[in-house]
Fold these 3 entries.
Entry 1:
Amino acid sequence: MSKTNVIEWTNAGPDDILWVYPYEDIRWGSVVVVHEYETAVFMRDGKVYDVLNPGRHTITTQNIPLLTRAYRLVMGYGETPFKATIVFISLKQFRGRFGISSRVRISPNALYTTELQAFGDYWFRVADPVLFLTQIAGAVKSLTTQDVSNFIRSFLSELLMQELSKRSATDVYTNLEEVTRRIKADVVAEAFAQRGLELIDLKMGGVSLPLLEKMEKEDPTYGLPLLIAIQKGEEDQVLQIVKTVESMRALGKSPGAGIMGALFAIPQMLGAQPVQPAQPSQPAQPTQPAQKSYADRLRELKKMLDDGLITQEDYDRVKKQILDEMSRG
């Protein structure tokens, strides 16, 4: 675009969050046109100074007082043109889409996790332009709509993955709307507000368990019932199927063992060693698997709590079991 004395964001698209005026040499007396649902922010050296609300503004010392004061301290008033970056920010509502993958427990009391995928939509707007620029400017490669949109989507996805990892698959499937509402109200909305954004709404369009769905086709005898039990929130049935498959795997029987490929054991939570498939071509070895010390088991348990893999209730229950074993030993 050619440089004129009228500074205006023209041809803004419906998905454009912001636009940076391409020239930094600003003349006193230039006119800045700010449309409805926009704001114009004056920056210099990465610092935010003045904000212009919707209207037609002639650049004077009255409407950019902070920037004027900064220039007086450095070189005195009157230099024209002066250096500044003008960022136009849209205050309209925007819609984004997300798709995430996180590891979750298959049920609240199960000692196995699996992969959970979720997708959905979110709606947001810039509520505090100054805070928004302050928080976002240093976190993106460039102040463009694409980079800012990617940052917001990645930021939301990370929050959702962290929160979903604290929940079980049975809980997510049976209470998807409530889980989404809690995550939005308790975590995401506040995190957005700290970056000058308002999270208007968050909706999960659906969730899936891709590894279990794959095993459900390969092992319909146990994979399908396990998947259905998780989707219905039937924890007792989930635990019973897993216990059955664990027993068959320990005996070297193949039926049902395939679904274990879709599950990840929480490491040595109770000090038990992971079960290895039987090797029929090798003679059985009478050697006893090495057991972890009580101290190691307690340390691992505490780390799992700190990483959000287990709840405080799980931690207290298992810790008591380990301490009871120590007292009996």
Entry 2:
Amino acid sequence: MLRNIKFRKVAVVVFLTVLIWVWTDLALNETYSVSGAKIVLMESSPEIWISFDGERFTDINNIELQGPASKITNIKRKVENHSFSLLFPLDAEVEIADANRPLNVQDFLQKSAQLQDSGLVVETCLPSQIRVSVARLTERPLAVECHEESGAPLSVGSTVEPATVNVLVPDNWPPGDKARVVLTPSEIDQAKKIPIRKKAYILLADGQTRESSTAVQIRIPPEEERLKRFTDITATIGICLSENLVGRYDVELVNRTSGLMDLIAIRATNEARAKYEGQDKPRMTLYIYDRDEAYGQDVQGREVQYNFPEDLVRKGEIFLDQTPATARFRLIPIPSAENP
């Protein structure tokens, strides 16, 4: 009997101790400021574009959380070791029934999956409200262009069929903006052998796209079809003399009439050829450097530089189809007033 009484006393003491500990923890509320959070929009119906002023993400500058000390300690630890997500997904079609009503950020965060069962209260946040833009999209025909993964236009010519596709776009979509197809390096290689099919798309915001209703067929002609060989019969040469040599030397081209100014064999697309032939600059340039002065009037030799349009060279649309010509030249001193 005495033993049972002692046991009950111990149990009561333990219960009261735990109760006091829990009450003390609940009474000692703390606050914790969280920064660096974002709200991200989830996918919406294709016919609707929902954004934060044209963007998919918006920043929450500060979230002030309040709760028991133990829960604040727990959330701090999770934030510090990155196990607490600071990315809050928003299903705007559910949350925003009225496009003209702003989102109450505090209420939204309190109901979020991260905080709903945390035992913490969102005391304040900045901003407190965010306006969500809702735009209805309409189908419109857009021209299609091919791009590389880098985002740059495809550096090789391509044929796209059909040339236009129907895509859902906002009412204020710029008339000249096109739908794009992005090709990987392996797809580019494949398209040179057999046509490939892909859907074109437009980019509304980072991570928000709308695809064309139908796929297009893309074909890239092999190199031998794209680049045709032609001969430039209007070879001209310019001389670029080092600034330190200007006014002191003339340059004599020894082989001007014996090989240097012969025809230039080139491979290029029709577009690249037209741009090359339309340039005002000489077809070739010979560069003369300070070090060339050391050879006196001896004959020297140097390969000329061909003045192909740089952007077309980078795209592989024009190149020299022969051995570069070598200019043979010598420096002739110009008599000065002091030394006639």
Entry 3:
Amino acid sequence: MHKAIQAVAVLLLIFLSSCGDEKKTLVIYTTHGEELTSEYARLFEKENPGVRVYAIDMGSQDALDRIRSEKANPQASLWWGAPAPLFMQAAEEGLLQPYRPSWASEVDSAHHDPADRWYGTFLTPEVIAYNSEKLDSSSAPQDWDELLQPQWRGRIVIRDPLASGTMRAIFAAMIQRELRRTGQLDAGFEWLRRLDRNTASYTLNPNLLYIALARGETDVTLWNMPDIMLQHNENNYPFAFILPRSGTVVVTDCMALLRNSKQPELARRFYEFVTTRDALIHQAHTYYRIPARTDIPREKLPVWMQQPLKVLPMDWQLFAEKSNEWMQYWDDHIRGRGGK
């Protein structure tokens, strides 16, 4: 909610500042955080002096909900960042404008829409993160199921999954894993109920999650690896992470043009600008983002990116179809009730 209100304020500011401003305005909805998006907004403006870029950061589900609400009069021209299933939903609802980027042939078919309505830009692993002043790599939970042990009661903080594509992906992965194992959907919800029993709080936005973990109010969270690394290296937060032993959820973070937008040509130019080989190599080293393009020379990437990940199986189409239903059930029947 906080970021949604912030987004409205930014849109109002855009309107007011554009009055009498001869520069063209490009509005982008993004989930990639201020550090990455503000740098590339500045670089694009430098290369295009007649353009002003507003990159509005928000949760993945908040971005989709806003794009839906603005369908008749889109305020943004580009959507940069969120798990593929949310883009699948947007594509089926007619919210996205097909566009085939110049590097389309360099992305695996699993990471883009066959009708060119969205393309993956990053592959984002989800991890178990912890406060490294309170735990170390041997005492932190090593796998998903260890989070359910009694010793972690009241020691876990989680980003509210209703607004977060990252948490929706992790929750959906656990539901699907238990569904494969038992054949019962209820087994997945029981797993989430046991996690809720150990959860101290659900934060409204990532910054509140970082603060709770950094201050030692809680010891453990579930989040994406690039953001944990960025907060540790840029803000000196005492964060470290574990790649779960049984496999990690790897989200395809995507990009798409929005249908009937105000600046489609500028949006296409920005789309290409932030996904060149050089840009992706820079993003890999500076923002810990694993590129989805397969033509990036491995030796140009950080050493840690050259190691294969153990990936947890995931039916992303099922996620796209069922995530809203599953999250509504979680909100109605599980949130804050795990210990009851």
